[in-house]
Amino acid sequence: MQSIGIKSASSGRVPPEEDPDQGSRTAEPSKYARYADYAPLLAGVGATAGCAGALLALLDLSSPLRGPLVLFFLLAAPGFALAPWLRGLDVRGRAVACASGAVVVNLFVAQAMLALHVWSVRGGVAAVGGVGALVFLSALARRRRHRTPSGGTP
Q1: What segments bear the compositional bias annotation Polar residues (predicted)?
Q2: CA angle (92 as vertex; 16, 105 as ends), nearest 5
Q3: How many CB atoms lie within 10 A of CB 66?
Q4: How many Å is the maximal CA-CA distance in the chain?
Q5: Distance between CA atoms of 47 and 77, rounded to whole angstroms?
Q6: I need a surface site. Which of 10, 109, 112, 118 has the fewest CB within 10 A?
Q7: What is d(CA 83, CA 139) in angstroms, rounded to the nearest whole number?
Q8: Cα-Cα-Cα-Cα dihedral of 33, 35, 36, 41, to 10°?
Q9: Cα 68–73–75 angle (5° rounding)?
C-alpha cells in the first residue's frame, strides 16, 4: 500500500509551472484540436442532411433515407437553434442541453398538434422548423440589441 505525500504550502515553494512533482502546466492542445479544421465541413454536411430530410418530408417523397434524415432534422434543427442561448456552458454541457431542448421542442409541437387535432407529418416538420427558426432569430435579435454603440459586444 502506498501513501500519498502532501506538501505544506511554504514561502519557498517552487511555482506550479516549474514544480517537478506537478508536471508541466503549459497549455497542451486538446486531443480533438486536430479535428477543428473539419468543423465547418461537418456543419455544412449536417445542414445539408437536415435540409434534405425536411424537403423529403415536406414534398412527401419516398426514399430509404427519408426516415433517418427527417429524424436528424427533427433533432438537429431545434438543437442548433438553442445553441446561441447557451453560450456560457462548456461544450459537453451545451450539447446535452441542446439535445434535451430539441426533444422538448419536438414533444411540445407534437402535443400541441395532437391537442388541436391538426397532426400531420408535413405539419409537424414545418412546425418544428418554424419553432427552431423563431428561437434562433430571437437569439440573434437579442445579441444585436445588447451590443454597445461602438459595435462590439459588452
Answers
A1: 1-11
A2: 155
A3: 16
A4: 75
A5: 9
A6: 10
A7: 9
A8: 180
A9: 95
Give the cell for residue 66: 427519408
Please name the residue that has the C-alpha cell 434524415: 69
What distance in Å separates the CA atoms of residue 110 and residue 115, rounded to the nearest whole number?
Answer: 8
What DSSP string describes the chain?
A: --PPP-PPP-TTPPPTTT-TTT---S-PPPTTGGGGGGHHHHHHHHHHHHHHHHHHHHTT---TTHHHHHHHHHHHHHHHHHGGGGTTS-HHHHHHHHHHHHHHHHHHHHHHHHHTT---HHHHHHHHHHHHHHHHHHHHHHHHHT--TTSS--
C-alpha cell recorded at residue 5: 505525500
Q: Residue 98 has which C-alpha cell?
A: 441542446
pLDDT digit string, tens, across residues 99-114: 999 999 999 999 999 9
Task: Look up residue 104 and give its amino acid.
Answer: V
pLDDT in tens, 10-58: 555 555 555 555 555 555 666 767 777 887 888 889 889 999 999 999 9
